[in-house]
Each structure stands twice: as structure tokens, then as C-alpha cells.
Amino acid sequence: MNVCMAPVPVVFDLDGTLIDSAPDIHAAVNATLRAAGYAPLSFDMIKGFIGQGVAHTWTQIAHARAIPSDRIEDLLAGFMTRYHSATALTRIYPGVLEALGALADAGHPLGICTNKPMGPTRAVLDHFGIAGLFAVVIAADSLPERKPDPAPLRKAMADLGADPRKPQGIYVGDSEVDAQTAMALDVPFLLYTRGYRKAAVEALPHHAAFDDFAALPALIEQLRD
Ligand SMILES: O=C(O)COP(=O)(O)O
Ligand SMILES: [Mg+2]
């Protein structure tokens, strides 16, 4: 790792990028459905509903289980109670800790920009002992706008010291929503391919794709050249 390269803000998506949280989300969804008398949903189906925030996830669930719209609010509240501290089934992807450590050691300011609500975001960052690595955390409820609107990523970059008139930073994510968000802000996007993306890698605009976090520090160094 070239420790002389200029620092650049590096912002990460969370679900499907740094952490594999779908098993906890799946368990919390199904516990909520069962408690309300609905049949559970498959893991793959729930995984496909992650990426645009919990309201969107529950709109999809309601559609799949023909849940009347006037029941969704209650179900969502029950889900949030379970989701708030759901970390038992969540894993950090291999190599994430080492990559974050290398980037932090090189002086890059690090942030999070996620469509996950702040409660479970903080809980999972604390659970894995990585909250202190991130100078900025922008979650789904931090601003009125959510990804793919570029406002949350713009704020994360600006809070990490990027010039808001000309964002200079890198976004690392796993999904269609992340690719659109980075494109809307005109910042380089690095795509982690083991997350919850639905489309083919080639279908998503990205500067580089990687399936192993050991490759990330070098990819970021190349983008600085
Ligand atoms: O929880 C979601 O729906 C998405 O979360 P992410 O933005 O961290 O992928
Ligand atoms: Mg994601």
C-alpha cells in the first residue's frame, strides 16, 4: 500500500457491502409475519427486497402476501422492534476489517451511506466494533431524501471534507441503487459483487468490480492516479 497517496473520502454502503445482514432481516421479517398470522417468505425473496429501505421492503412483502395497506404500518412497527438490534445472524464479509484498517492507516476519511435506518445501523457497527472507523454515518432517516437520490451521498462526502461543488470521493456498494446514486453525484463507483445485486455486473455502471476486499485498497489507489 502506497502510504504517500493523497487521502480521498471513501464512503461505503452497508447491507450487502460491508455486512451480510440478509439472514437477520429475513428472520425479523418472518417473525413479524408469523406473529400477524401470515406465512413466512423465502430467504431469496427477502434478499431481493433489500436495498431501497425498509418501507420499500415492506411494500414488496405486502404485495407478496396480499397484506392490506392499512395493516402495513403496524407490521412495519413490529418489524422495527425486532430489527433494531438484530445482529446475531449478521456477518462481516471476509477481508472487510483488514481493508478498512488499511484505508484508515493510509489516512482516507471513511464514511457510511446506507438506506438502512440509523438504529440498526448503529447497532450493527457497534456490534462489530467498527463504529469508530467511520467519521460520518448517513442512514435512511438522516435526510428527507434516500438513495438513489444523490443527497445522502453528497452529504456524506461533504462531511468527510469533499468540496460539495465538485464531489471528490469514492463510493463502494453492492447494488443497482448504489450505482445510480454514484452516477447521479458523478463520483467513481466500486462494485462489490457478492452482495444483493439483482442485475448482471455488466448492467451496472461502475469503475471497477471486486469480489474480495483484499483488492479494495489497490483499486482505490489506482483511482487516485
Ligand atoms: O436496508 C436496505 O434496504 C438497504 O441498505 P443498504 O443501503 O445498506 O444496502
Ligand atoms: Mg447494499
Walk me through what this model shows.
- There is one protein chain.
- With 225 residues, the protein is α/β, with parallel strands linked by helices.
- The chain has 2 domains: 10-21 and 90-224, 3-Layer(aba) Sandwich (Rossmann fold); 22-83, Putative phosphatase, domain 2 (DNA polymerase, domain 1, Orthogonal Bundle), CATH 1.10.150.240.
- It has helices at 22-35, 43-48, 54-64, 69-83, 96-105, 118-127, 151-159, 176-185, 216-224, and strands at 10-12, 19-20, 91-92, 110-113, 136-138, 170-173, 189-192, 208-210.
- The strands form 2 sheets. Strands 5-4-1-6-7-8 form a 6-stranded parallel beta sheet, sandwiched between helices.
- Helix 6 links the parallel strand 4 and strand 5.
- Helix 1 (22-35) crosses helix 4 (69-83) and helix 3 (54-64) crosses helix 4.
- The model has no long low-confidence stretch (mean pLDDT 94).
- The structure holds 2-phosphoglycolic acid and magnesium ion.
- Magnesium ion is lined by residues 13, 15-17, 51, 173-175, 195-196.
- Belongs to the HAD-like hydrolase superfamily. CbbY/CbbZ/Gph/YieH family.
- Its EC number is 3.1.3.18.
- Mg(2+) binds at residues 13, 15, 174.
User: In CATH, what is the class of the largest domain?
Assistant: Alpha Beta
Domain count: the total is 2
> pLDDT under 50 segments (min length 5)?
none
Order of helices and strands: EEHHHHEHEHEHEHEEH
Number of alpha- plus pi-helical segments: 9
What small molecules does the structure contain? 2-phosphoglycolic acid, magnesium ion
Number of DSSP-assigned strands: 8
CA(first)-CA(last) distance: 13 Å
- DSSP strand content: 5-15%
The backbone outline, from C-alpha atoms, is globular
CATH architecture of the largest domain: 3-Layer(aba) Sandwich
Mean pLDDT: 94
CATH topology tier name of the largest domain: Rossmann fold
> Spatial order of the strands in the main sheet?
5-4-1-6-7-8
Radius of gyration, Cα only, in angstroms?
A: 17 Å
Q: Characterize the largest beta sheet: strand count, sense, and whether it forms a barrel.
A: 6 strands, parallel
Give me the secondary-structure category: alpha/beta
Active site: 13
Binding site for Mg(2+): 13, 15, 174
Organism: Paracoccus pacificus
Protein name: Phosphoglycolate phosphatase
